[in-house]
Design brief:
By secondary structure, the protein is an alpha/beta fold. The protein has 6 helices and 9 strands. Strands 5-8-7-6-9 form a 5-stranded mixed β-barrel, surrounded by 4 helices. It binds hypoxanthine. The site of hypoxanthine has 13 residues, from β5, β8 and β9.
């Protein structure tokens, strides 16, 4: 794994002169952010050695280097999901590579189903914490000390400073910004009403099929993390609406200007 990370990092380093300190992983239907980037270089996943190739409709699969909010950043358009069949090491491989090229801060976004009864479709939620319900932890197996500690703390998996910064921005700009705990599940099924209820009872506010693996690895690697969910559907024991991938994408597309605004302003301040 170490060799693969080094090889891929070396390849990426050859592609552009400057290496970013911040990487942004864009979730389902949330790719519009890249249209705001002053692009310097794009690299298709298919051209990157050791990179898995994304298979899901709505994920186009490339790394984009450029300027956003006055910062030189790297955006990952399309991520690797566990439900596609990738193992946890593959899902999180890009984060390892980002660290190896010098990235210190990771922004993650996703579409998620809301269980919190205060939430509405289209709400944007800052992730304050998560619950890992994937069947495996990406750090399972041999630990490479050069990548991080055997038993990393997850007490502040999502930087409190970033949460406060997002709150300030929301307050200044009159944005309704929710806080919540993201429950990460393997998917690909959406939840039964009883499962949404269960996730709410155990302390979750939103549920999705991504993010948790990448955030675990980012913490292992000592990166600071900011996470944001767009609430694309609601679930619970009294909710009978049936979510679909198309609906999730449409709701994400509609809410993404708010998310883009917050991320851009965050970048200006970090
Ligand atoms: N459940 C799981 N993943 C999701 C959902 C959901 O309701 N909405 C968007 N991603």
């Amino acid at each position: 794994m170490i060799e693969k990370i080094k090889e891929t990092a070396a390849f990426i380093s050859q592609q552009t002169d400057e290496m970013p300190k911040t990487a942004i992983i864009l979730g389902t239907g949330l790719g519009d952010l890249v249209n705001h980037i002053d692009v310097v270089k794009e690299i298709a996943y298919a051209d990157i050695p050791n990179f898995p190739v994304s298979t899901v409709a709505g994920h186009s699969g490339k790394l984009i280097f450029g300027h956003l909010g006055g910062k030189y950043i790297l955006a990952m358009q399309g991520r690797f999901h566990y439900y596609e069949g990738y193992d946890m090491k593959e899902v999180t491989f890009p984060v390892r590579v980002f660290k190896a090229i010098g990235v210190e801060t990771l922004f993650v976004s996703n579409a998620a189903g809301g269980m919190n009864k205060e939430f509405s479709v289209g709400d944007v939620m800052v992730i304050t914490d998560h619950i890992n319900l994937f069947p495996e932890n990406p750090l399972r197996g041999k630990n490479y000390e050069e990548l991080g500690p055997r038993f990393p703390a997850m007490t502040e998996a999502y930087s409190r400073e970033f949460v406060a910064m997002a709150d300030d921005i929301a307050k200044e700009d009159g944005i309704r910004l929710m806080h919540g705990v993201y429950v990460g599940t393997p998917g690909p099924t959406f939840e039964t009403p009883a499962e949404y209820e269960y996730f709410r009872v155990i302390g979750g506010d939103a549920v999705g099929m991504s993010t948790v693996p990448e955030v675990i690895v980012a913490n292992h690697a000592g990166m600071r993390v900011f996470g944001v969910s767009v609430i694309t559907d609601l679930g619970g024991k009294d909710i009978t609406e049936v979510p679909s991938h198309e609906e999730v994408q449409q709701a994400a597309v509609k809410a993404q200007p708010v998310m883009t605004h917050i991320i851009k302003k965050m970048l200006e301040r970090i």
